[in-house]
Structure to design on (177 residues):
């Protein structure tokens, strides 16, 4: 149930990142610059979450994986990529923090000069974000393929566990407040 749920959540994050990047592309074409900081950061963050959900190295921990804060997500995903390539992991962390700073500047401080402030301090650009998201989602896909391989190789049909419908329904039910 946990792994079915984790991959379901990962797919939702992949769709979300895709929608955000498509919206960002549209915004760039139509000069909607105010959307850029938010969409750059959250496309990276949701791609990071997609990878974390599929990672066997990250514990479910009674569902806390779903509600972890941004700093923990950034550290975890940087470590995950760093296990493959240390330089890429460090670059990823730097890029995520730059995108977070960019988003926070326009969410909390909104400079009087507007979006022009970023022309002097190029924080992160669209192409780099697309490349990073692609890398994160390729690793998530690899994790998914590994899970499928293990299921096909090691699980016997008569020992296949059932789905805990209560846990699954709890995870896909949304409440406000």
């Amino acid at each position: 149930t946990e792994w079915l749920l984790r991959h379901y959540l990962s797919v939702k994050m992949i769709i979300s990142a895709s929608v955000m990047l498509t919206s960002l592309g549209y915004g760039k074409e139509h000069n909607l610059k105010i959307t850029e900081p938010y969409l750059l950061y959250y496309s990276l963050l949701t791609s990071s979450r997609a990878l974390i959900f599929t990672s066997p190295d990250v514990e479910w921990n009674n569902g806390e994986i779903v509600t972890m804060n941004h700093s923990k997500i950034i550290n975890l995903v940087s470590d995950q990529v760093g296990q493959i390539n240390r330089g890429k992991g460090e670059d990823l962390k730097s890029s995520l923090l730059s995108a977070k700073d960019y988003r926070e500047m326009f969410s909390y401080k909104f400079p009087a000069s507007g979006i022009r402030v970023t022309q002097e301090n190029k924080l992160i650009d669209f192409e780099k974000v697309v490349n990073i998201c692609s890398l994160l989602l390729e690793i998530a896909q690899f994790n998914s393929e590994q899970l499928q391989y293990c299921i096909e190789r090691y699980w016997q049909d008569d020992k296949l566990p059932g789905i805990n419908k209560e846990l699954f329904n709890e995870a896909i039910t949304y409440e406000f407040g």
Q: What stands out?
A: Residues 40 and 129 are 7 Å apart (CA to CA).
